[in-house]
Structure formats: structure tokens, C-alpha cells
Design goal:
Blueprint lengths: L1 E4 L2 E2 L4 E3 L2 E3 L24 H11 L9 H7 L3 E4 L2 E4 L1 H7 L12 E5 L2 E6 L3 H12 L7 E6 L2 E6 L3 H14 L8 E6 L2 E5 L4 E6 L1
């Protein structure tokens, strides 16, 4: 079973099932590092910022302190004395990030079928991807003979698939206007950019 993904990248720590993956800066086209015309704090979901803050031990922002919160994380841009959320902020906390970054989605398939498009901000995409790799058709249960006995085990270690998904969300290049893709097929799990394999796990 092969899991291929294109390049993806992001900016701030991502917490995934017991581990915090520290991510420093997004791979965005230079203009996208700044604000998108028309972005305002109302485009962000405060409850998502709360979720993010709790997992990283940060003080949860209120509607009144959200701008300060974004500024401290380097997720706002001063445009003529007015703070606007950066594209990175929209990707992380946005109510509807695809309104500003339509290609900021992940398309997943199993054996070139069962196509699903994962949308939303990166925290939601992380959750949906981790739920997806737990499905039996993605990570099937196998009977393995161990010391003369048969045991049921998943084809891939959970941590390996988590790493594949988080690497996708950590290394994507938003300068590329194509959606990220993950394909599960055959007997190998691998993470790749659009044209070449980066890493892999075999069953």
C-alpha cells in the first residue's frame, strides 16, 4: 500500500496525538506570507485558536486580545497601522481558508478509488487525515505469525502513518497551486512530493 503526497508546509507547532511537531515558517509564495486583501480577524475561528492554545500551553485569546495573540505568533501583518491576519493565520485558524486559498486542500484516495477531499483549516485537516489513516482499508489488519502463534496487527505502525500525515502538513509548498494528494495503494506507504518519493514505509 503506497501513500504518496505532494509537498506541503506550514508555520506553527502542530500537536499530533501525544507529540508536538514544531514548525517554524510556511512555504508560501512571498506575497502569501503577507495578508490577503480583505482578511480580518472575523475570518478566523476563535474556538480553533483556543484549541491550539490549550494544546501548546498558551494563554487563550479572547475576541479583544486576538490581534495581540496573532502578533505574538508572527501571524499578523501591519498594513498602514492596521493589523491584518496573515495567510498563515488563515490557514491555521480560518473559518473558511479555501475562500482565500482554494488549492489548500488534501485529496485522499484508496486504490485510486474512494476519493475524498479534506478541507478546512490545518488543525481540522490534521484531525481528518489522522482519522482517515486509521480506517481499515487504508491500514488493514493482518494476521502475523509470531513464535508459532497468529496475531492480528495493523499493516503499518500507527506512528509511521502519523509521521506521513504530519510531514505532509509540515512541508507543503503553497506556491504550487495544485491540491495536496495522498494515494494509498499496493503494499507500500510513502510520502512524496508531486513527482518523486521522499520517504516510505513498506508493509
Amino acid at each position: 500500500r503506497t501513500i504518496d503526497s505532494d509537498r506541503l508546509s506550514f508555520a506553527v507547532p502542530v500537536h499530533a496525538r501525544g507529540r508536538t511537531h514544531a514548525v517554524r515558517s510556511p512555504l508560501l509564495p512571498s506575497r502569501s506570507r503577507f495578508c490577503h486583501n480583505g482578511t480580518t480577524p472575523s475570518d478566523l475561528a476563535l474556538h480553533t485558536a483556543h484549541q491550539y492554545s490549550r494544546k501548546l500551553g498558551l494563554r487563550e485569546p479572547t475576541a479583544a486580545t486576538l490581534k495581540v495573540f496573532l502578533r505574538e505568533l508572527g501571524l499578523s501583518i501591519d498594513t498602514g497601522g492596521v493589523d491584518q491576519p496573515s495567510i498563515a493565520a488563515v490557514l491555521l485558524f480560518g473559518r473558511d481558508p479555501q475562500r482565500f486559498i482554494p488549492h489548500g486542500v488534501v485529496t485522499v484516495t484508496v486504490d485510486r478509488k474512494k476519493r475524498k477531499v479534506i478541507t478546512g483549516n490545518l488543525l481540522k485537516q490534521r484531525k481528518d487525515l489522522l482519522d482517515w489513516v486509521e480506517q481499515e482499508d487504508v491500514n488493514p489488519i493482518l494476521k502475523v505469525k509470531v513464535r508459532g502463534r497468529h496475531e492480528e496487527r495493523r499493516a503499518y505502525h500507527e506512528r509511521a502513518l502519523i509521521e506521513l500525515c504530519i510531514n505532509l502538513l509540515v512541508h507543503r509548498d503553497y506556491a504550487d497551486g495544485r491540491p495536496a494528494t495522498i494515494q494509498a495503494q499496493g503494499n507500500r506507504a510513502g510520502s512524496a512530493n508531486l513527482n518523486r518519493t521522499l520517504s516510505g514505509v513498506s508493509a
